[in-house]
Design brief:
With 430 residues, this protein is mainly alpha-helical. The chain has helices at 2-13, 15-34, 44-52, 55-63, 79-94, 96-102, 106-137, 146-173, 178-188, 191-201, 207-228, 266-275, 277-286, 291-303, 309-330, 333-342, 354-389, 398-429, and strands at residues 231-238, 253-259, 345-346. The chain has a three-stranded antiparallel sheet. It starts with a helix and ends with a helix.
Length: 430
């Protein structure tokens, strides 16, 4: 036990790391306090009931850190910033100017980050207007004048900018990625409420189901860690070089790591956004007076219910498809092969150039297939487990689970690197 806690104990002995930890904790506390300051003119009880019955709004609530269900001043959360980041990440792969800018080092990344902040503002305004209209149609927001509407939209947009600032402060002065830590804190903060609800509704017949659900959850977390850390190491050999008329230097050997889950949680985000569209359309069409449109709406509402077979099957297929699509966008075998050839490298047994690109593409397709099926299984597994066990209160989406595990792994690695860096500094001073 002492060996497990020794890194934490040693971190508090170092003034710099202790300061980073305290700054991170204080900023997360500020975030959670802001999440409980509601916007005026909203029926909170009706709002929470709406979010409990709608999976898409529940997904938005995850990325807002649990603030959207309370309609707090930061109710939009980081969702506009995440959307802006994804848009620029895709544009970087398409636009030659942005791609060249991304290769200019730290200065280029700062410029792209600034563009991302600029795009976040109009996205936040659009999402604030959309959320206001949605809640207005549901009767959650009372009749208010235009000045109050403008105040709500401006306040929600300012809340997103405030959260973005908090996340960047954590990244710069704290430990880990600030944006990811805020989302992580929002997800984890709802765990005690979920466990309390489960304890109240559980009876003697559900105790075994809860234990099965807990064991299944542990196995899923272990699987997420295993796949998230899984990599295929491709050996890259660099040719010998003659320097200054001397004998040849021994060629260096390195490895090109290809991750099994190259796309992260992005495919699930895209897939769940699309798979819930038929359900929304069905709810709208079912209320129309025309019999044909009304019957189509009822069909969509029934068959695209989150617990139905068609919903889960379409969800799985979309996750697999988006995994391949996003991996193809962020990993270009031709460019990687050209970079290896440019610096005099080659893969043993594979000729540089076209054959190297074909080999990397072949390997990437195989490991992406495994990662895509794993992401698809993670996406639909909570729904299947809840139907088998009959427990609805412990339902945690695949997106939330992947975010929690990924953030913990990333923060732990940064924490460990800081300790190692500090150890080297102390050794050098001696």
């Amino acid at each position: 036990m002492t060996n497990i806690l020794s890194p934490v104990i040693n971190a508090f002995k170092i003034a710099e790391l202790r300061r980073k930890i305290f700054i991170t904790i204080v900023l997360v506390i500020i975030f959670r306090i802001s999440a409980h300051i509601p916007v005026s003119g909203v029926d909170l009880a009706g709002l929470q009931a709406l979010f409990a019955s709608n999976q898409f709004l529940g997904l938005l609530d995850i990325f807002s850190g649990g603030t959207l269900a309370n309609f707090s001043i930061i109710s939009l959360g980081l969702n506009p910033y995440i959307n802006a980041s994804i848009i620029f990440q895709l544009l970087t792969m398409i636009s030659p100017k942005l791609e060249a800018l991304s290769k200019e080092g730290e200065m280029g990344r700062q410029i792209i980050n600034q563009y991302t902040r600029y795009l976040t503002v109009p996205l936040a305004i659009l999402q604030a207007i959309g959320m206001f209209v949605l809640l207005k149609n549901q009767g959650i927001i009372a009749q208010i004048n235009p000045m109050q509407v403008a105040a709500i939209i401006i306040g929600m947009t300012a809340g997103t900018i405030f959260l973005m600032w908090l996340g960047e402060l954590i990244t710069e002065y704290g430990i880990g990625n600030g944006i990811s830590l805020l989302i992580f804190a929002g997800i984890v903060s709802r765990v005690p409420i979920t466990l309390t609800q489960t304890a109240f509704v559980a009876d003697q017949t559900q105790i075994m189901n809860i234990l099965i659900f807990a064991v299944l959850g542990i196995l899923v977390v272990a699987g997420v860690v295993f796949v998230n850390e899984g990599r295929r190491q491709i050996t890259v050999q660099y040719a010998r070089r003659f320097i200054g008329g001397k004998g040849p230097e021994t060629g260096a050997q390195t490895y090109l790591p290809l991750r099994v889950n190259q796309a992260g949680v992005i495919p699930i985000i895209f897939a769940v956004s699309l798979v819930l569209v038929p359900s929304f359309a069905g709810s709208y069409l079912a209320g129309l007076s025309q019999p044909q449109l009304s019957s189509i709406g009822r069909f969509l509402a029934v068959n695209f219910n989150p617990g139905s077979l068609i919903y889960n099957l379409v969800y799985f297929i979309l996750v697999v498809g988006f995994t391949f699509f996003y991996t193809a966008v962020i990993f270009n075998p031709v460019k990687v092969a050209d970079e290896i050839k440019k610096y005099g490298g080659f893969i043993p047994g594979i000729r540089p150039g076209t054959q190297t690109a074909a080999f990397l593409n072949y390997i990437m397709v195989r490991i992406t297939l495994a990662g895509a099926f794993f992401l698809g299984a993670i996406a639909i597994l909570p729904s299947i487990a809840s139907q088998i066990t009959g427990i609805q209160t412990l339902l945690l989406g695949g997106t939330g689970l992947l975010i929690v595990v990924s953030v913990i792994l990333d923060t732990a690695k940064q924490f460990e690197s800081k300790l190692i860096e500090r150890s080297y500094e102390v050794f050098a001073k001696r």
